[in-house]
Amino acid sequence: MAAIESSPQSTFGFGPREDADASRQSQHSVSNDAPTDVNFNAIVARSQALTVNLLGKNFEANADRRNKLFDQFAAAMAKPA
Fold it and tell me: In 10 A of CB 21, how many CB atoms?
């Protein structure tokens, strides 16, 4: 008598059986693609990454503002007296 297996057949790609295995091996949350902090180190790493991202955006915004101010100043200085 052959063994009865209730799980989907294995595929050569990423099919339902492989997806079920990935779900079993990972923690369960809203979805497999949702980021989840599993420990304190993950929380700190996410916070640091978001801080660096924010600092980079602020730096670019300030650099753009300085460039615009300098362009106005340079144009005013270049006008004939």
Answer: 13
